Amino acid sequence: MVNSATRIAIIGGGMGGLTAAIALTRIAGVQVTVFEQAGKLGEVGAGVTVAPNAQRVLDRLGVLDQIKRAGATPDGHGVYQDARGNVVTDAAWEDSARQYRNIGMYRPDLIAVLAQEVDPDTIRLGHRLSSIQTSDAGVRVEFENGAREDFDAVIGADGIHSVVRKAVSQFPEPVYSGYIVYRGVVDASLLPDEWPMISQVWMGDHRHFMCYPLQQRKLFNFVAGVPSDRPLAGDWSGPAEVSELAAEFAGEDWDPRLHRFISAIEKTFWWGLFDHEPLTNWSRGPITLLGDAAHTMLPHQGQGVNQAIEDSMALATFLAAADDVSDIPEAFRRYTSVRMQRTAILQHGSRRAGAMFDAQYEFADLQKRDADLRVGRDFRRSAVFDYDALKVAEKALQNSRRNQFA
Ligand SMILES: Cc1cc2nc3c(=O)[nH]c(=O)nc-3n(C[C@H](O)[C@H](O)[C@H](O)COP(=O)(O)OP(=O)(O)OC[C@H]3O[C@@H](n4cnc5c(N)ncnc54)[C@H](O)[C@@H]3O)c2cc1C
């Protein structure tokens, strides 16, 4: 069995890396060290939806109550509507058993909740990974600050620009979608009292706008997707003027309620949307990937973090079943094969959802788009929200044991 003498390095202290640290400690009982390049743990000032499929994992890890206290559960299902605000369909917001419902979280709050569950002595800030070498003795990680350390295994939770990914294989660079999003939060007190406490998406020609409540309903998150060639000119994100955002949604083609929401925005920033085709492999020996490092996806299904949380549960389950340190590469191989299938579907589904929101779906046939959105709602509940990462991993382990003794 792997145990508390088994030393695992997690590169990246984002939402994926911190969840992995909790899962690996609590389920596999191994010793983790999290290396984060930044001088302190943090996240951009925007929201994220923690979906039922991730809540199932967080519940088992014992952190769901803290997340519920910090977040906001909407009053009911969300809505997809056209640019003028006519409702096309309702959006899935709970699992079939109605046990878990979407929670809107302010990202810094989610990081804070997760970080509280990790032993602070195991988090090394200001450590930017520069190289990884494997040897018979394990894996050596080296950092730009000159530090170096040896581990039994390494997990790359270092996001879209992952350095660990390069140690697994040479993969193509992420692809720019042609769209940026303006992101940020609005103080809920600046909105009319009757503003609905639900998630809303307005879908227009080549652009969409989404908002939902966060932080015990004190804040609203917003994400506004528009086409742009900005990231091609340099950075992937940066500060932006609210007036630029407002100009993208100006005019009578758009719902006056949306104009009212935009008038409450005081600050925003832009973010280029990138993804990549599903990778053909996530692991090499005692090195594996998790979260955006493994499966960057467009944000239109709100599943990037939720998949990193599922990854963490699956990885911990396969590791817990490893006989000893020499069995870790096989545990990583099993993890990879189960998770790659799941996340590839969501990577493609997120591109499809973006085309729907921006009216670019199936040759801009809006009737078909609307019909498929309705079908998609039920698929989302059963295939995305009902997924149980622990059960799927356990079943894969049982099957592999059965095959071993057949
Ligand atoms: C507009 C938008 C909305 C989204 N909404 C949702 C949503 O509602 N729900 C959802 O599930 N997902 C959503 N996502 C996706 C989600 O933000 C990502 O999937 C998620 O942040 C990935 O987490 P991660 O921990 O894998 O990577 P990251 O959050 O990128 O964290 C990586 C960490 O690694 C550190 N790091 C990087 N390189 C190094 C290095 N060399 N050495 C040491 N540390 C390093 C970084 O500093 C960072 O802390 C959205 C994304 C966008 C753009």
Descriptive labels:
2 domains, eight-stranded mixed β-sheet, alpha/beta, 18 strands, D-Amino Acid Oxidase, Chain A, domain 2, five-stranded parallel β-sheet, 406 residues, 12 helices, binds flavin-adenine dinucleotide, 36% helix, single chain
The secondary structure category is alpha/beta
Count the strands?
A: 18
Which CATH architecture of the largest domain is right? 3-Layer(bba) Sandwich
Distance between the termini: 23 Å
**Which runs of at least 5 residues are low in confidence (pLDDT < 50)?**
none
The percent range for strand residues is: 15-25%
Which molecules are bound besides the chains?
A: flavin-adenine dinucleotide
Largest sheet, spatial ordering of strands: 5-4-13-14-15-12-17-16
What is the CATH homology-level superfamily of the largest domain?
A: FAD/NAD(P)-binding domain
**Topology-level CATH name of the largest domain:** FAD/NAD(P)-binding domain
Label the overall shape: globular
Tell me the major beta sheet. Answer: 8 strands, mixed
CA radius of gyration: 21 Å
Question: Could you characterize what this model shows?
Answer:
It is a single chain. This protein is α/β, with parallel strands linked by helices and about 400 residues long. Helix content is about 35%, strand content about 25%. The protein has 2 domains: about 5-175 and about 275-405, 3-Layer(bba) Sandwich (FAD/NAD(P)-binding domain), CATH 3.50.50; about 175-275, D-Amino Acid Oxidase, Chain A, domain 2 (2-Layer Sandwich). It has helices spanning about 15-30, 50-60, 65-70, 105-115, 165-170, 240-250, 255-265, 290-295, 305-320, 330-355, 365-385, 390-405; strands at about 5-10, 30-35, 45-50, 80, 85-90, 105, 125, 130-135, 140-145, 150, 155, 175-185, 200-205, 205-215, 220-225, 235-240, 270-275, 285-290. A hairpin with a 4-residue loop joins β14 (about 205-215) and β15. Flavin-adenine dinucleotide binds next to α1, β3, β12 and α9.
